[in-house]
């Protein structure tokens, strides 16, 4: 687990990052009063590309300041107790305009997913999308779990449902799971399995926004070289 270093860093770099605002790899927190909620940010960074939490910075970028030691122990509780598996992090402490700002640095996880509790206490995998933490699609979570087990390929029967799916993507550029289910009449669990298998086979890739998930062709897949 992280070691707490109360080191005052050069503030020029941190001020420039604050000026750029929140995004994929950066999140501002005025303070920490809910370890479960902060666990979602930690797991989202770990499940995506990694990132930093700046504690003591308001959403508008102004400096609020924090008690670094108190905030650190809240972060440690979130990482150890409310992230499954637990998440390692690094810590930096900055004196910005006479106020303390704590930076919590999370690297992208080698083995995904890391789970954290939603508002109902159910542990879920979160992703960082732009400046938001969202629940990861079930298909992506299943891909992660299979990769952890060393699964590199699957056997799949290219039936009329998959033929429809690939032709729709070829024609329209993408398809959602709901559209796939609606047009084929497949059960959701069956559609998830098909999409997961095609992701593992690198036939499909996934585009995720805060409002929708769409499936597209993997950049290395050439539809025109196959017959469906």
Number of helices: 7
Annotated CATH topology of the largest domain:
Methyltransferase, Cobalt-precorrin-4 Transmethylase, Domain 2
Estimate the mean pLDDT confidence: 90
Helix/strand order: HEHEHEEEEEHHHHEE
Query: What is the rounded Rg?
Result: 21 Å
Q: Which CATH-level-2 architecture of the largest domain?
A: 2-Layer Sandwich
Assigned CATH superfamily of the largest domain: Schlafen, AAA domain
Q: Roughly how much helix do the residues carry, as a percent range? A: 25-40%
Number of strands: 9
Helix/sheet category = alpha+beta
Low-confidence stretches: 1-9
Side-by-side strand order of the widest sheet: 1-2-4-3
> What's the CATH class of the largest domain, please?
Alpha Beta
Distance between the termini: 51 Å
Biggest sheet, open or closed, and with what strands and sense? Answer: 4 strands, mixed
Overall geometric form = elongated
Strand content: 15-25%
Count up the domains: 2
Structural features, described:
It is a single chain. The model is unreliable at 1-9 (pLDDT under 50). The protein folds into 2 domains: 11-135, Schlafen, AAA domain (Methyltransferase, Cobalt-precorrin-4 Transmethylase, Domain 2), CATH 3.30.950; 138-225, Winged helix-like DNA-binding domain superfamily/Winged helix DNA-binding domain (Arc Repressor Mutant, subunit A, Orthogonal Bundle). The radius of gyration is 21 Å and the shape is elongated. Strands 1-2-4-3 form a 4-stranded mixed beta sheet, sandwiched between helices. The protein has helices at residues 11-20, 35-47, 68-81, 138-148, 160-172, 177-184, 188-200; strands spanning 26-29, 51-55, 90-96, 99-106, 115-117, 123-129, 132-135, 204-208, 213-217. It is of the alpha+beta class.
């Amino acid at each position: 687990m992280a070691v707490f270093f109360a080191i005052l860093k050069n503030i020029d770099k941190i001020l420039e990052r604050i000026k750029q605002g929140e995004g994929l790899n950066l999140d501002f927190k005025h303070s920490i009063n809910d370890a479960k909620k902060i666990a979602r940010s930690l797991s989202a960074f770990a499940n995506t590309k990694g990132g930093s939490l700046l504690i003591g910075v308001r959403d508008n970028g102004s400096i609020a300041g924090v008690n670094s030691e108190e905030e650190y122990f809240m972060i440690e509780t979130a990482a150890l107790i409310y992230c499954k598996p637990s998440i390692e992090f690094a810590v930096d402490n900055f004196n910005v305009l006479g106020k303390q700002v704590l930076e919590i640095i999370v690297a992208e996880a080698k083995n995904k997913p890391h789970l954290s509790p939603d508002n109902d206490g159910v542990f879920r995998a979160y992703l960082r999308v732009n400046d938001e933490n969202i629940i990861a699609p079930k298909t992506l979570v299943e891909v992660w779990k299979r990769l952890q087990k060393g699964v590199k390929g699957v056997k799949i029967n290219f039936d009329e449902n998959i033929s429809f799916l690939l032709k729709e993507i070829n024609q329209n550029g993408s398809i959602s799971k709901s559209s796939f289910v609606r047009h084929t009449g497949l059960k959701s669990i069956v559609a998830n399995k098909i999409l997961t298998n095609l992701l593992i086979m690198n036939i499909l890739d996934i585009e995720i926004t805060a409002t929708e998930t769409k499936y597209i062709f993997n950049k290395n897949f050439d539809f025109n070289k196959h017959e469906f």
